[in-house]
């Protein structure tokens, strides 16, 4: 199974992170959360006071921060200029701003290059929005996870305190629209991807289904 790449795409709240980590653990693979890299870039831009309503300003600064991702599925890490930002990148301010930053082509070019470097050696599960289509188009296994909007919002609000299902659903709908309508590398189902609707499945069932796909295709 040397060199195996599993590409895991889908909208927010579809279960990508839990499923990707579970699959990586079961197969002894590394794990890369590309969303964390876009979040880290966004966190840095906010720290720097960059005007996030101005794509040219974002583009001009996008080469500056050093972003380093750990790939251990037991405890993935993310650092910006040597600072661990695993906590801050999950805060509402970053979540609210990340889709605007991720829509800037210069940001994507920089982070896609880093992601390809990390994924190049294989033996990795890579999760995001454009993995099967752009980052790893030759991945042996491509999965596109979906779930109903209500199920996705319910899962996310169970993870966060102080947020209602309705508020989550509205925030996700806004991000999904931005992510799937942007000009550069929009969220879409890649050629050769298998769509897996997880609405009625629990985590173990989804992981088992992905492991079955891996077995079938390798
Ligand atoms: O997966 P997560 O919700 O942490 O991703 C945060 C945001 O990063 C997404 O809403 C999207 O705007 C962006 N993203 C992206 N391409 C990826 C991964 C994430 O544009 N491969």
From TrEMBL:
Composition bias, Basic and acidic residues: 172-185
Known EC number: 2.7.4.25
Pfam families: Cytidylate_kin
Presence of the UniProt keyword ATP-binding in the record: yes
Reactions performed catalytically: CMP + ATP = CDP + ADP; dCMP + ATP = dCDP + ADP
Ligand binding (ATP): 10-18
The protein's enzyme class: transferase
Segments for region (Disordered): 156-186
UniProt KW keywords: ATP-binding, Cytoplasm, Kinase, Nucleotide-binding, Transferase
Recorded GO MF terms: kinase activity
Domain Cytidylate kinase: 6-215
UniProt subcellular location: Cytoplasm
Family according to the record: Belongs to the cytidylate kinase family. Type 1 subfamily.
The protein's name: Cytidylate kinase
Organism: Nonomuraea spiralis
Organism ancestry: Bacteria, Bacillati, Actinomycetota, Actinomycetes, Streptosporangiales
């Amino acid at each position: 199974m040397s060199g195996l790449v599993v590409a895991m795409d889908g909208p927010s709240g579809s279960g990508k992170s839990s499923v990707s980590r579970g699959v990586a653990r079961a197969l002894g693979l590394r794990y890369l959360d590309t969303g964390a890299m876009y979040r880290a870039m966004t966190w840095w831009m906010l720290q720097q006071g960059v005007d996030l309503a101005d794509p040219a300003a974002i583009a001009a600064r996008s080469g500056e921060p050093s972003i380093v991702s750990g790939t251990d599925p037991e405890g993935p890490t993310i650092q910006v200029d040597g600072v661990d930002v695993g906590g801050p990148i999950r805060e509402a301010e970053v979540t609210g701003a990340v889709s605007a930053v991720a829509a800037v082509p210069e940001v994507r070019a920089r982070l896609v290059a880093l992601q390809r470097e990390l994924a190049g050696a294989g033996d990795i599960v890579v999760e995001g929005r454009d993995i099967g289509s752009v980052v790893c188009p030759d991945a042996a296994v491509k999965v596109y996870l979906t779930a109903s909007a209500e199920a996705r919002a319910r899962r996310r609000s169970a993870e966060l305190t102080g947020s209602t299902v309705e508020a989550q659903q509205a925030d996700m709908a806004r991000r999904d629209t931005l992510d799937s309508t942007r000009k550069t590398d929009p969220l879409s189902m890649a050629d050769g991807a298998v769509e897996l609707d997880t609405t009625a499945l629990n985590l173990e069932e989804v992981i088992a289904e992905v492991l079955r796909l891996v077995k079938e295709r390798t």
